[in-house]
Amino acid sequence: MNSCYKIQPSEVARSAQLAMILEVSASPKPGNIDRTHDYIDTRYEHFLASATGVYPVFERAASGKENIGELLKEAVFESNKWQKGGNTHFGAFLLLLPLAKSAGQLIQENEKFDMKKIVERAHRLVKHTDVEDSINFYQAFGKANVCVQDIEDLDLNDSDSITNLRKNQTSLFELMEISENYDMIAKEWTHGFELCSWCSEQITDLMERGIRTDINCSIVYTFLKLLSKNPDTFIQTKFNRETAVEVSEKATNIVTQIETSGYEASLPSIIEFDEELLKKKINPGSTADIIIGGLFLSIIGGMRF
Q1: How large is the angle between the packed helices 90-108 and 285-300, nearest 10 degrees?
Q2: InterPro entries, alphabetically (predicted)?
Q3: Count of other CB atoms within 10 angstroms of residue 163
Q4: Per-residue pLDDT at 151
């Protein structure tokens, strides 16, 4: 990463947009919507519309305006305003907004700009969220129609939970601490965006060293490698833990094949895996969100293709 790379809030916002667009465009990305696969009610174009519509929210995040909870609620509002395909990026917003806000603060402070500083600052920002951020999170959740496991003692679909949040002064970071054992996005908050950082390093390394100069292949390979090491919690919520582990085991087999025989030779296996998951309606959505976070860090760091 070029530590002297000077950017503006608008470039932070465009980096977030491009990360979302590249992730959904990557194909074949097993189980998820991409440029060649749609779901019945949600299409590839819905993701493009969402990524386009939220631009002003990310520019405000990078300009230091508003708290994370407020920004999350605004992002969901803008996403819904521009498309009718339902939830497209809720998990991605939870990752991108602190990262974008962090990048913006570093710009304003004329700090050296690198991935480590961005994630360290983002971790500090999420640790300092408050009860208002929690309330905005609940309100955003209600608008996004997200499939998640309820947080302990707090029904995400119960308006009384907001009363309990205010009574207990529960911060959004504390909600994530409660959820970290069964939600990958929450764990990113509590563990300093470790997997986003890993994805960024993986993708950037593949591109810069010429191992995989095709950005599409680099994303798909990184997606499979991430999935192989981390059972997807969206699958676990939608199905069960056993299904999530089984999917990760199959991803591991394909990663081994790629590392042994190469990406092109393994492409039929990737396509077969993709078709199997699509047929069973198993989509590793949390893995996709983390890939978006990693792509953002790579793009904001100067990776080009």
Answers
A1: 20
A2: CitG
A3: 11
A4: 56
**Long-range contacts of the stretch 164-171 (C-beta < 8 A, 24+):** 165/131, 165/134, 165/135, 165/138, 166/131, 166/135, 169/130, 169/131, 170/131, 170/134, 171/129, 171/130, 171/131, 171/133, 171/134
Alpha helices by DSSP H, listed for the chain, are: 9-25, 44-53, 55-62, 68-82, 90-108, 115-127, 131-144, 160-168, 172-179, 184-190, 194-208, 215-229, 233-238, 241-261, 263-280, 285-300
pLDDT at 2: 45
Is pLDDT of 215 > 80?
A: yes
Domain 9-198+288-300: CATH class, spelled out: mainly alpha
Domain borders along the chain are: 9-198+288-300, 214-285
Q: Comparing C-alpha atoms, which of 305, 297, 303, 253 is closest to residue 114? A: 297
- Res 148: pLDDT: 52
3-state secondary structure of 66: coil
Q: Which of 29-43, 144-158, 167-181, 206-220 has the lowest mean pLDDT?
A: 144-158
The 3-state DSSP class for residue 151 equals strand
**Per-residue pLDDT tens over the stretch 129-151:** 999 999 999 989 878 766 555 55
CB 171 within 8 A of CB 186: no
Nearest to 74 by CA among 47, 292, 82, 189: 82
CB atoms within 10 A of CB 98: 27
